[in-house]
Amino acid sequence: MAAREQETTAPETGLGVRQRATWQRAAVSAAVAGLQEFRSAQQVCDVLRAEGRAIGMSTVYRALQAMAELKQVDVLRGDDGEMLYRRCGHGHHHHLVCRVCGATVEVTGEAVERWADRVAEKHHYTDISHSVEIFGRCADCAGS
Ligand SMILES: [Zn+2]
Ligand SMILES: [Zn+2]
Ligand SMILES: [Zn+2]
Question: Measuring CA to CA, which residue among 54, 63, 49, 56 is closest to residue 21?
């Protein structure tokens, strides 16, 4: 594989590894910031490679996972089970996602919020969270 990621090792200090992770994390972060649609790790990797970055799929995936844990990037599970990433606006919201082209609309759902609260209260659960995404076909993709 020509595009295979170069593994630079600095086993004594670990410094080289940490620096490598830093520029790659920054590159992944910049790529995600430019996304309008939710994209898979593979697609983010493709964007970076198209920019001429020698970056590996596993590195992109790890960076996205780490950013998701730090809430620096939003993540949802796609219709086919694949994890998808994008940087969202602030505040709690849900998504309407086109399963064909990935076009995404951010939506709020008061009825869903009230329902979640009511269900949790009924079962005496506290500190609750939920994630609700709606998948479908956008007007462009459904059009004839
Ligand atoms: Zn969002
Ligand atoms: Zn679409
Ligand atoms: Zn909600």
Answer: 63
pTM for this prediction: 0.72
pLDDT band at 72 (very low <50, low <70, confident <90, very high): confident
Which residue segments constitute the domains of the chain, with CATH numbers given?
Answer: 1-88 (1.10.10.10), 90-144 (3.30.1490.190)
First and final C-alpha spacing in the chain: 41
pLDDT on residue 1: 44
Ligand 3: centre distance to CA 39 (Å): 21
Distance 136 CA to ligand 2 centre (A): 8
